[in-house]
Write a structure and sequence with these properties.
The chain contains seven helices and no strands. It has one domain: Four Helix Bundle (Hemerythrin (Met), subunit A) (Up-down Bundle), CATH 1.20.120. It is globular.
Length: 207
């Protein structure tokens, strides 16, 4: 099972990616109905449906990892797809919920998606630089990285639940702080890898 590209763990990861447009579509329906003055019951139905879709996607993140570890289904494709699926889901959800969604749903402050997207852009840029310099990157996520993803997912969930502003702000602030910390951590690790790289592994060494 380990050498199979399309195994159970990877299938669940792909399923999580496919749930992303479903979540966005449900939220857009909620917004459209709120703008047309639909009744509260209709808006509540779409809000809870969005929460169910996102919760299912978030739970699948733990399931595919468990299956990969305990049933010998770790693959290079899975190591690439799993964090990518998280990024696609979270970024789509955070961006969507940064706009007014109508009754019963608050929206993220403008700086929250800005910080999240900036971190991801920095990580992507660092990855491209390492590829350009022919430096192998270890894709294993750190503990604090997993905690950051958890709090970002919790931010979406508490927002969709319509909890008090105090609870939402507390979770969002914690997610923001962790996002900044992991950004700095990844930058420092990336700079260290470049500094410690052997000359013959860099573009300059090959010239």
């Amino acid at each position: 099972m380990k050498n199979r590209i399309v195994n159970t763990a990877n299938t669940i990861t792909l399923f999580r990616i496919l749930l992303t447009p479903v979540f966005v579509g449900v939220m857009l329906m909620h917004r459209q109905l709120s703008l047309t003055g639909s009744d509260v019951d209709a808006l509540e139905y779409w809000r809870w449906l969005a929460l169910a879709v996102f919760a299912l996607a978030a739970i699948s993140d733990g399931i595919d990892g468990f299956i990969a570890r305990h049933f010998n289904q770790k693959t290079e494709l899975g190591e690439l797809l799993d964090p990518l699926a998280d990024k696609i889901l979270l970024n789509a959800a955070i961006l969507t919920l940064s706009f007014s969604m109508g009754f019963g749903i608050f929206q993220f402050p403008f700086w929250f998606p800005l910080i999240v997207f900036t971190r991801d852009l920095i990580i992507l840029s660092g990855t491209l630089i390492h590829r350009f310099l022919n430096i192998k990157i270890k894709t294993t996520p750190s503990l604090i990285g997993k905690i950051t993803t958890f709090f970002q997912m919790c931010s979406v969930i508490v927002l969709l639940l319509g909890l008090s502003v105090g609870i939402i702000n507390s979770v969002v602030y914690a997610a923001t702080l962790l996002t900044i910390i992991t950004c700095v951590q990844y930058v420092l690790i990336g700079l260290k890898m470049i500094h410690e790289a052997e000359p013959n592994k860099s573009v300059i060494g090959k010239q």
